[in-house]
């Protein structure tokens, strides 16, 4: 099969050294292995700028959604009520999770090209004091918009509520001072900006709130408190852990450090993103999100005007030449998406913009 690089927001293109770690079948109950888990947990807290006294990290089997579902169904009790601020498919997925769990919740829907407003959230919290938790997405991968979790966190904390953030596609690609921004639970996964392979999600949680969630979980395998209690002893996972993925993730964390940590990685992503948008604009292809709110992870582009444009044809053209891009996900416009995270550099962005140009040149107007 022909190889290609992924310009999708996870799974993404990883290094050969990260993939190479998976050539070893590691034993799970062995001390070495448990130690690797413990080191990963410690490192995640550092990346989140939080202390081990106040916060703790829990790894959870499954994709990112499993992590989000684990938090929502484990920490929101029967007497609690959740407010979800949504401006894309991943915010809406949280409502879906709440619905499935029979949770008491309200949703604040914002247009996909707008960020949820902290002031609207304040009004909703003031009007309904029974709301106990607020959840939202940081980087809405649906559109590529970067939501202002800092402003919302301020409001949520000033009202004394619990703040849950899905930072799946931003954590480690965008610097997030978790405590300073008032975040109590933040969720991300192995195959996004840390550049590991898919297989588990992780949660950075306020210790006190996590402790208080004991016995609230509505699911056995996604019980965050139980998972934590087992892992906290000596790094043992409660059920079979994705060993190969964990080894790859430990290597990915090492490589993040070697690159220069979050500052260097976020700079590379931002530069990739700006170069991509600039190049596409020169071809007459414009981003769906305005410059102020566009995040550095993935960009939604409108179909180019003045061309007999078929996304499937462009997708194949580009894939045959070494890159996989993404269809659009916003509902109200014809769009496609290009991600710029993973082992992706300036040369890749230049090449893909050039491929888009070649494709358009070969297409009828
Ligand atoms: C990737 C992603 C998820 C998780 O998706 P999975 O397919 O379950 O890994 C959740 N939220 C956001 C914002 C994401 O980008």
From TrEMBL:
Modification N6-(pyridoxal phosphate)lysine occurs at: 192
A Pfam family assignment: Aminotran_5
Domain Aminotransferase class V: 32-329
Recorded catalytic activity of this chain's protein: (2-aminoethyl)phosphonate + pyruvate = phosphonoacetaldehyde + L-alanine
E.C. number(s) listed in UniProt: 2.6.1.37
Keywords, in A-Z order: Aminotransferase, Pyridoxal phosphate, Pyruvate, Transferase
Gene3D superfamilies documented for this protein: Aspartate Aminotransferase, domain 1, Type I PLP-dependent aspartate aminotransferase-like (Major domain)
Cofactor(s) listed: pyridoxal 5'-phosphate
Similarity section: Belongs to the class-V pyridoxal-phosphate-dependent aminotransferase family. PhnW subfamily.
PANTHER family: 2-AMINOETHYLPHOSPHONATE--PYRUVATE TRANSAMINASE
Stated name of the protein: 2-aminoethylphosphonate--pyruvate transaminase
Taxonomic source organism: Blautia caecimuris
Taxonomic lineage from the root: Bacteria, Bacillati, Bacillota, Clostridia, Lachnospirales
């Amino acid at each position: 099969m022909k190889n290609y690089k992924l310009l999708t927001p996870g799974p993404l293109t990883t290094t050969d050294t990260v993939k190479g770690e998976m050539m070893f079948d590691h034993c799970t109950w062995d001390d070495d292995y448990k130690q690797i888990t413990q080191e990963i947990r410690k490192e995640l807290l550092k990346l989140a700028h939080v202390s081990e006294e106040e916060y703790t990290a829990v790894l959870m089997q499954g994709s990112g959604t499993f992590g989000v579902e684990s938090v929502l169904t484990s920490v929101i009790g029967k007497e609690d009520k959740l407010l979800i601020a949504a401006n894309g498919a991943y915010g809406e997925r949280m409502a879906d999770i709440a619905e499935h769990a029979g949770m008491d919740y309200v949703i604040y829907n914002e247009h996909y090209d707008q960020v949820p407003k902290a002031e609207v959230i304040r009004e909703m919290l003031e009007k309904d004091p029974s709301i106990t938790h607020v959840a939202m997405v940081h980087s809405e991968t649906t559109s590529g918009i970067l939501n202002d979790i800092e402003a919302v966190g301020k409001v949520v904390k000033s009202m004394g509520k619990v703040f849950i953030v899905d930072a799946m596609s931003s954590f480690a690609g965008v610097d997030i001072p978790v405590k300073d921004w008032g975040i109590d639970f933040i969720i991300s996964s192995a195959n996004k900006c840390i550049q590991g392979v898919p297989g588990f999600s992780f949660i950075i949680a306020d210790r006190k709130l996590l402790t208080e969630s004991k016995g609230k979980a509505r699911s056995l395998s996604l019980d965050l408190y139980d998972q934590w209690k087992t892992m906290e002893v000596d790094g043992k996972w409660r059920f079979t852990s994705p060993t190969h993925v964990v080894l790859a993730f430990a290597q990915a964390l090492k490589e993040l450090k070697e690159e220069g940590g979050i500052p260097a990685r976020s700079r590379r992503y931002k530069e990739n993103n700006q170069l991509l948008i600039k190049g596409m604009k020169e071809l007459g292809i414009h981003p769906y999100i305005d410059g102020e709110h566009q995040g550095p992870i993935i960009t939604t582009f409108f179909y180019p005007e003045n061309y007999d444009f078929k996304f499937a044809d462009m997708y194949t053209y580009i894939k045959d030449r070494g890159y996989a891009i993404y269809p659009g996900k916003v509902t109200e416009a014809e769009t496609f998406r290009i991600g710029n995270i993973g082992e992706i550099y300036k040369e890749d962005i230049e090449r893909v913009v050039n491929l888009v140009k070649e494709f358009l040149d070969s297409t009828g107007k």
